[in-house]
Amino acid sequence: MPRTLCTEVPAAVGQSVRVAGWVHRLRKLGSLVFLQLRDRTGMIQVVLEGDIAATPLSHEDVVEVTGHVAAEPRAVGGAEVRAESLTILAHADLLPFEINRKDIRAGLDVQLDHRVLALRHPKPHAALQVQAELIEGFREFLSGRGFTEIHTPKLVSTGTEGGSEVFEVKYFERKAYLAQSPQFYKQMMVGSGFEQVFEVGPVYRAEEHNTSRHLNEYVSLDIEMGFIRGEEELMDLETEMLQSMFGRVAERRSEALALHGAVAPEFTEIPRVPLAEAQEILQRRFRKASPPGNLDPEGEQLICQYIGGPELVFLTRYPLSKRPMYAMPAPESPELSASFDLLFRGLEVTTGGQRIHDYRMLVNSMEGRGLNPADFESYLEVFRLGMPPHGGFAIGAERLTARLLGLANVREASAFPRDRTRVSP
Predict the structure, then answer these.
(1) What is the DSSP letter of 328?
(2) Each residue of 46-66: pLDDT tens digit?
(3) Within this chain, do residues 128 and 73 fall inside the same structural domain, yes or no?
(4) Is residue 261 located within the same domain as residue 398?
(5) Residue (of 392, 49, 342) closest to 222 by Cα position
(6) Residue 214 burial (10 A CB sphere; 0-12, 13-18, 19+)
(7) Same structural domain for residues 160 and 197?
(8) pLDDT confidence of residue 162
(9) What is the CATH number of the domain that holds 85?
């Protein structure tokens, strides 16, 4: 008999089925035992009686049940399995915390120490389902627009941003680094004739932060496209893409959203506010001073509250000095950049902009920041061979998921988070 998943059981009323999963909850009522069985799709009630009811079971035991499906309006899904046989596939040891309550009653550090168990709980499980749907929506949208998915190296010879926040690794007889970003490679792929590319992959930042918004390894959703006329095209693209991604989640993961009390935002456009104007708003409306050339976390939250609606806002025209060496100067002011950040409910989830495509201009930018162009020779080659105007952006998948679901800590949106102190499990 093939296995029937929990969510498929209600459609099999009157039939015999074989179900398998984890024992989520047990309740004894007279000579009957009511077992709530959980698999990857959800839960179903199983009724044990007679000799089967005497089987010693514990929460999180892995079991297989065959039985007859009967209608039961009081049960989840309106049906239950009346067991005819039960096999214990694996016993569970004493659990470090319970996962059959509405919320896990353990601190986040304890949950992360026992991450596999925590992910069995419906809410953390749903968070990663939502993230998977967002990523699939990202791929689907861009593939439909003629973009090509690429896969770039994560072992590189130099830091992408030219800074010190890189993880050094021993690479045979030389040093290498874990990639901070696929930035150089996605630009090179644009210049190689692919024109429009995207990647879903890990990036690594050796930052000392240990906050609720930072990870040292995260999943980056990267885009780069050629023959643009300015960064406005990139913001247009991201607006349409997020509409599609959020719409997909609302349609396909409504139960997961509801479990977190979350609603996918709906919007027709995302406001675009120059950074200097945002800083002025914060000073005028909230008496909030901002650091030079940026907003601090409180400022990001306040400006999103001020914008209202879905609390999405593009911040534009960052000072060129605050952006990487490949950032294109703004056409109206060489001191500003043709770049942007996207804030979502008080947190930056995207950084992007137009890039320098002129070889000499890029070399001058490197030298002006104290970088040696010889260290970037393989990257610079494409600019000597003819590079179209181009730009792109990157979205942090964990941050996007955390903001959508209202998670307090970005670690909750990572299957196995890596931060300043955690490299296991």
Answers:
(1) P
(2) 999 999 999 999 999 999 999
(3) no
(4) yes
(5) 392
(6) middle
(7) yes
(8) 57
(9) 2.40.50.140
Which value, to the nearest 10 degrees, does the dihedral of the CA atoms of residues 162, 163, 168, 173 take? 40
Instruction: Count up the domains in the chain and report the number.
Output: 2
- The reported pTM is 0.95
pLDDT at 164: 65
Q: How does pLDDT run across 292-347, given as a tens digit for each residue?
A: 999 999 999 999 999 998 899 999 999 999 999 999 999 999 999 999 999 999 99
Chain centroid to Cα 123, Å, comes to: 15
Same domain, 75 and 209: no
234 lies in a domain? Answer: yes
Domain that holds residue 134: 116-413
Answer yes or no: are the C-beta atoms of 354 and 228 closer than 8 Å. yes
Residues 317 and 282 in one domain: yes
Task: Clarify whether residues 408 and 267 are in a common domain.
Answer: yes
Inside any domain, residue 52: yes
Question: Which token pair is 361?
Answer: 């201009």
Sequential DSSP letters for 32-93: EEEEEEEETTEEEEEEE-GGGGGS---TT-EEEEEEEEEE-TTSGGGEEEEEEEEEEEE---
Mind listing the pLDDT tens digit for each residue in 9-59? 999 999 999 999 999 999 999 999 999 999 999 999 999 999 999 999 999
> What DSSP string describes 237-296?
HHHHHHHHHHHHHHHH-HHHHHHTT------S---EEEHHHHHHHHHHHH-----TTS--
Looking at the structure, do residues 191 and 263 belong to the same domain, yes or no?
A: yes
